[in-house]
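1st attempt posting a full record on here, be nice pls
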Amino acid sequence: MFKILAKDKKTQARTGILKTKSGEIETPFFMPVATKTAVKYLSSKDLEDMGAKAIISNAFILSLKPGTNIIKKMGGIKKFMNYNGINFTDSGGFQMYSPSLYLGSKENGVMFRNPFNGEKLFITPEEDMKIQLDIDSDVAMCLDTMPLIEHSKKSIIDAVNKTTAWAEKCKIHHEKLQKNIPEEKRQILFGIIQGGIHPDLREKSAKELLKLNFKGYSIGGLALGEPKKDEYKMVKIVKSIIPEEKPIYLMGIGNPSELLEAISLGVDMFDSRFPTQNARHGTLFTKKGYMRVINSKYKTDSKPIDPECECFTCKNHTKAFIHHMIKMDEGNGMRLVTYHNLYFLQWLMKESRSQIKNGTFSKFKKQMQTYFER
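the predicted structure (as tokens):
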């Protein structure tokens, strides 16, 4: 299912191949977030053109609209959205803690408010597994409860305990539902490691989930405002426990500097709204760092956003045009900047893989981080 191809000698960075029922993808990789089966302002063709070979959607939201029955009737999520890559799904995490959605958790599941009609809903680990299998994604996440950084340690202990209990229920039911499906056609299930920024709780969560022997492991509950040193410390703890043959997915990370740091720690996959949200607010990624294209100095700039970038936006439009489009809040402008930022992260992942194979990743990381941290 996961095979390591190359290791960097100066860091823990590695490249590998993740094999799913829909094909293979080389790690490390970044997934655009397509919560409702679409990245805002982009088509599935846009995602494929930029080289995004995997995306992540929210199974809980999709179970409400359009509904799992419709997606199943259409032949699964891949055919429904006409996307030829690899589909990941989860059931919330961050969305759970939106005041409009999350109503609390019990020993056997989570209480939500339907964002479309206000109805109260309850979802169990077993129901979550059926939803994700009906949607027919390639890689599913266990139902977890994600504590916020500011929560008390007692609350975080409770979250870790529930996450472990739900993970066991998820795994048992997931295997039961797929028992008659050939191994190569099965959906992959990842466990999600929680624990806030408490080393002992991260260790506890990782060790407990390791006993359940998931195909891969996600690190949840980070990139929520905690100091970067704490974020990286939690990743190191998890990496010291989970065997190297298991792929690691760090959820919610999309800052270029953080991505490179996490890759150097041995993380294999990522997702985040960071690049698309920044794009819509006029902050773009370039090979020389961030660019605030809405600044007045770009009003008459006839050059592309990044002269070294090969994306559609940079090959066809000037900073002046992009500046105007964003200032006017034009949908086409939002599409162009969203495309650019996601293209940049696909380039960053591709370049990281190449640098790891060539033994030069450490130098590449240091150079790029100087641009994004100044």
